[in-house]
């Protein structure tokens, strides 16, 4: 009976007008209970100085999301592409505000009918008060009536379908564009956690440095990301995949095409992957022994885009001696989990799901 009352109070909290938002370093996603994922775009905004509509010296938004990402590294001089987030937190407030406002307008959740929604926004567990306030303010400026923040680990665990409310601990490792967050979740909250400012962006950079060192060719960010997604592997060995990549030769400054292998990528990523493994080890070292026992039993779940790196699960499993599985649809776990939290999957007021800075 008590449980039924509790359940109905959760249902009462569930509003059709709630919007969950994951403002990530690489991608921004918006989710509503009715329509699911209504926006999934790269976190990039492109400004035009003194554009057709703007007065001389004035800056206008020329493109956001995929359209803006296509311009990264290619934009003409009057255009400037900006990634407003760095390591999961806002680095350029004005750009983040413009981008978020555009995204919310593009998503235009159908059932809002012009009403201001309640936002539940994912934030890195390690975000400072100032960084949390910036995210909150950007959400208000994008039209939120109220803003709840949820730690990314808890959101990712919920979205991955882990039994977060259980007393048995689960571990989630979220590898995003700019951060890796490790969380041990039990009883609806984060029991212990760790994070490192290493994610897919640092993987791309490591590939650029490696190709430059090995072949004397400078490739761009997008080429590096393409290599990582297409033939990337966390481990050397068969099957070896190959892909041609074109960049600028260090010798003569002219275009040069080289063949990169999955083993090259494994070598390039060895260092950043060691850092990722290091933070998971640290969390094991600081977690209470009972929770460590639980995780040895239940394994580790990988979320975030980095989870899709080839053979990463095998690499982590070999290094840590614990079973590792990749969540379904790892890129959208955090936003779906934030949506579930907004719908009452964890009780508001938990330390990691609160409305205060
Ligand atoms: N198939 C793939 N293999 C390897 N990496 C991938 C793959 N698909 C996406 N990624 C990487 O995942 C990263 C984006 O992941 P995600 O969208 O979870 O990050 P984010 O939430 O925006 O970042 P953060 O949580 O750090 O703020 C990018 O670096 C992208 O290159
Ligand atoms: Mg993320």
TrEMBL record:
The keyword Cytoplasm applies. CDD domains: ASKHA_NBD_MreB-like. ATP binds at residues 25-27, 177-179, 225-228, 305-308. It is found in: Cytoplasm. InterPro entries: ATPase_NBD (IPR043129), MreB (IPR004753), MreB_MamK-like (IPR056546). Gene3D superfamilies: 3.30.420.40. SUPFAM superfamilies: Actin-like ATPase domain. It comes from the Bacteria. Pfam families: MreB_Mbl (PF06723). Keywords: ATP-binding, Cell shape, Cytoplasm, Nucleotide-binding. Forms polymers. Forms membrane-associated dynamic filaments that are essential for cell shape determination. Acts by regulating cell wall synthesis and cell elongation, and thus cell shape. A feedback loop between cell geometry and MreB localization may maintain elongated cell shape by targeting cell wall growth to regions of negative cell wall curvature. Belongs to the FtsA/MreB family. This is Cell shape-determining protein MreB. It comes from Paraburkholderia tropica.
């Amino acid at each position: 009976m008590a449980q039924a009352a509790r359940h109905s109070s959760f249902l009462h909290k569930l509003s059709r007008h709630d919007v969950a938002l994951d403002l990530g370093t690489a991608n921004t996603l918006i989710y509503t209970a009715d329509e699911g994922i209504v926006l999934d775009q790269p976190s990039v905004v492109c400004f035009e100085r003194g554009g057709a509509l703007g007065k001389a010296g004035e800056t206008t938004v020329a493109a956001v999301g995929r359209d803006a990402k296509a311009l990264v590294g290619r934009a003409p001089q009057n255009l400037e592409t900006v990634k407003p987030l760095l390591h999961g937190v806002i680095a350029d407030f004005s750009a983040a505000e413009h981008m978020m406002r555009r995204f919310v307008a593009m998503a235009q959740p159908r059932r809002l009918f012009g009403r201001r929604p309640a936002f539940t926004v994912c934030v890195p567990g390690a975000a400072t008060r100032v960084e949390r306030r910036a995210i909150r303010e950007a959400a208000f400026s994008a039209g939120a009536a109220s803003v709840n923040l949820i730690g990314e680990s808890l959101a990712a665990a919920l979205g991955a379908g882990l039994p977060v409310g259980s007393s048995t601990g689960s571990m989630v490792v979220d590898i995003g564009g700019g951060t890796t967050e490790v969380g041990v979740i039990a009883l609806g909250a984060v029991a212990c956690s760790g994070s490192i400012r290493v994610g897919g962006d640092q993987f791309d950079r490591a590939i650029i440095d490696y190709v430059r060192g090995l072949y004397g060719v400078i490739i761009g960010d997008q080429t590096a990301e393409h290599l990582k997604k297409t033939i990337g592997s966390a481990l050397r060995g068969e099957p070896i995949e190959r892909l041609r990549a074109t960049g600028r030769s260090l010798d003569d400054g002219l275009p040069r095409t080289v063949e990169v292998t999955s083993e090259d990528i494994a070598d390039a990523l060895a260092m950043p992957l060691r850092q990722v493994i290091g933070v998971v080890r640290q969390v094991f070292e600081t977690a209470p022994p009972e929770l460590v026992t639980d995780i040895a039993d239940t394994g580790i779940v990988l979320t975030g885009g980095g989870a899709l790196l080839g053979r990463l699960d095998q690499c982590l499993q070999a290094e840590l001696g614990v079973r590792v599985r990749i969540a379904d649809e790892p890129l959208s776990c955090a936003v779906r989990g934030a949506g579930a939290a907004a719908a009452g999957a964890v009780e508001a007021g938990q330390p990691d799901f609160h409305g205060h800075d």
